[in-house]
Design a protein that fits this description.
Elements lengths: L1 E3 L16 H7 L7 E5 L2 E3 L14 E6 L5
Parallel strand pairs: 1-4
Antiparallel strand pairs: 2-3, 2-4
């Protein structure tokens, strides 16, 4: 599995088995933040983070909403 982010491109390969998207969110300290996750080109609704299984080769893009003004 690889993670990418647009803009300031970051690619990471988490160590060990992550399992589901919710576990990855917690591992990356993103729980409770406004995020959007795309898996293999498809948006994964927040309601499905706890049941969407990650597999080797998945490509994820995680976007964190940042306020400003």
């Amino acid at each position: 599995m690889s993670l990418g982010s647009s803009g300031n491109a970051t690619i990471r390969r988490p160590r060990g088995r992550i399992g589901i998207i919710q576990k990855l969110v917690e591992t990356l300290d993103l729980a409770g933040k406004r995020i959007a996750i795309e898996r293999n080109g498809e948006i994964v609704p927040r309601s499905q983070h706890g049941e969407t299984q990650l597999t080797d080769g998945d490509r994820l893009e995680i976007v964190v909403a940042v306020g400003g003004g």
